Amino acid sequence: NQKAVSGADQPEDKKTEEPLGPFFYIGGANGAGLLDVYCKSKGWQRIHDNKREDYILKWCETKCRETYYNFKEGEQLLYQIPNNKLLTTKIGLLSNLREYERVMNKISKTLNPRLLKMEDFFPESYRLDIKDERDAFFEIYEDTQIWICKPTSSNQGRGIFLLKNQEAVDVLQSKLQSIDEDPIYKKLPYKAPQARIVQRYLHRPLLLEGKKFDVRSYLLIACTVPYMLFFGHGYVRLTCINYNLASDDLTTHLTNQYMQKKNPLYSYVKEETVWSMERFNSYVNEKYRLAKGLPKDWVLMAFTKRMKDIMMQCFLAVKSKLDCKLGYFDLIGCDFLIDEDFKVWLLEMNANPALHMNCAVLKDIIPTVVNETLDLALEIFNKIQKGQKILPLELQCHFVMLYNGIAPDGGPRPSKSKTSLASLRNQRSLTESSPHIAQNPPKAMEKPPKRQPNGPSENPLPAPSKARQRTLLPVSHVSIQEAVCLTIPANLYDVWRPLLAQTPRELESFLIPAVLTNNSPCTSSSSLPITEHIIQL
């Protein structure tokens, strides 16, 4: 009887042992240990089937189309914005920074005082996948110049090589030309072998104890609906051996840990290949402050501000292009170099930055970065789910807010319904403007008074002709409360169209004044969908 009872109890025991969730999934080894500890501390249970869709958090090194297709917006957290390559590939970053600068300069330099000149923070670069650009590079190259050639998507120094003389450049040119002329290659939809950039090598870097270094900082996009961005300090990465411009050893020129591990000296000096920001700040105060006329704590003050400004411009360059859903979040590694004149340069931005802990400094900083990344993403997500005000953030400590797109009253209060999510997106595009714009909308955005039935209005506007009505073009990703028609001359349409894709925060300083000072007529139409922005040519 006891055996029978025991046998009968077994199915019930198994049933009670079934995990109830919430569940989390981790794909890959980068930071997996830290992520596992964090999630289990929340009482969550780990799953190992990548195809399961019942997770609350999914953190993957490699993006998968099915993951984004099956993602439940407003119910799940998913690491990595699907098209973050706009920032995190060499070609993506270069192209978007160029486009943003070109558009902003066409409007007015005086109306954009905070716009950074790309030449002041990004090394001169050329794309090798565009014939005109690579021909331009081969034309301007002078012997003895040093350039660095990088694959667009690789990280950890993979595929990088230096061009140090005319012979090396001629070899590259010949190789690219032979590939171009290959009939099989011409049929390929994506020219993978040429997906590279060449970048002018910064040959006079600031040195620490004779060694080249760069600084890894973090851009955290904790939420995309609304946008919530944060800046986080990282660490300083140094080479194992002293800097020598003439050396062909890449471990002299590339500072990342992946490359430094290839140096035979790494195991002996690895603790000296990573410095904390505090140590770096003290070193600059001691060695360079008086000699270079720097203010005290230049690293933690002026340098930090410059990094923030550069990150912000990079974000604004892609802000209207990133895929945004409630639950998407991202951590991006940003690498900066300081030259001997203390000029700050952005080298690149990296998706899925390394979260390994090879030395004491990394063991201190990486857990802080990982834990607060999840803390902030989760706190913001939960507050939006519950309809609570987002600010203040109780768990914000290491990261500093860089940008927020919430309403002036502390944030929108949506629920998980699809209707509310759509409303949240519409509200985001409206409330990301300044409080002044939000509380006192310009006349160009106000609904005009209805015409009196017995007589014309003071400033009658002619109805658009049928020909004009056929040229109404919708810009689907701009959402405003009512449809507004802006009469724009056809010859200026190409200039204005990219600007109308921006949200009010970027437009408030030049779009509205431009509309008003040019006396562009504005009208509204109740027959048009409220989420369409109409450009009348």
Automatic annotation (TrEMBL):
SUPFAM superfamilies: Glutathione synthetase ATP-binding domain-like. PROSITE patterns: TTL (PS51221). Transmembrane segments: none annotated. GO terms for molecular function: protein-glycine ligase activity, elongating. Residues 417-437 have a biased composition (Polar residues). InterPro entries: TTL/TTLL_fam, TTLL10. Residues 411-465 are annotated as: Disordered. Gene3D superfamilies: ATP-grasp fold, B domain. PANTHER family: INACTIVE POLYGLYCYLASE TTLL10 (PTHR46810). This is Tubulin tyrosine ligase like 10.
